[in-house]
Amino acid sequence: MVLYIAIALIAVAAYIFLFTKRGRINGIREKYVLVTGCDSGFGLLLTEQLDRLGVKVFAACLLQKSVDEIGQKYSHAIPFTMNVTDSEDIRKGVAFVKQKLPENEGLWGVVNNAGVVGCGYAEWLTRKDFMKVLDVNLLGVIDVTVQFLHLIQKAKGRVVNIGSLLGRHHETFAAPYVVSKFGVLGFSDSLRMEMRPFGVSVHNICPGYFQTGLVRSASDIMRHFEATLDKELISRYGKEHMKEYSYWIA
Prior knowledge:
Belongs to the short-chain dehydrogenases/reductases (SDR) family. One of its GO terms (molecular function) is oxidoreductase activity. Keywords: Oxidoreductase. By secondary structure, this protein is an alpha/beta fold. The chain is built from nine helices and six strands, in the order H-E-H-E-H-E-H-E-H-E-H-E-H-H-H. It is elongated, with a radius of gyration of 19 Å.
């Protein structure tokens, strides 16, 4: 219940940025919003909330199973698959959205929510480990935003990027995630300046720690490192490193 309430608060915050520049927005049922990462967590709950308001939600999912479930459950949602790490797939997503939008209509908002968690001490990780997180959390945000930007400009809409408190403050045992979220906030700050002449606003939502489906259990994390890392490397960090694991599953 606590987790559900916490996620609901994030969804409400995203809604506020999307629809309340100066009070209630007229014609809310004629607005179109794109949300990424709708398979679960924040993205799915935001899709549900916007659907209740009658907003047309382009719900971008990684899995076809999620598309089918959203299509059956929500009457105003327009689900489709889009892998944010694949530029060609994003281009297909742009074509799909443009096909579904009414003539001369743009996107009132884009919520870059898709993300993954990456943890471990920097010395324990490889370039591939960092790129796996950056590809989704940072490069995916940039690619989706840039490719859909002309549709956002058309509606003088807004970009809402789901960052993290770890994009403002560092944390031990989370270097890939921290780097990706610092990057998201930096990209948002730069884009905000560039979009002012177009009447487009750019926002960051920075939630704290929530144990959504992205977070693996401590035992899964330990098994991964124990199977892939040199035992001497792990032992040099001592038993204290278990405290860092416990933070990520608290």
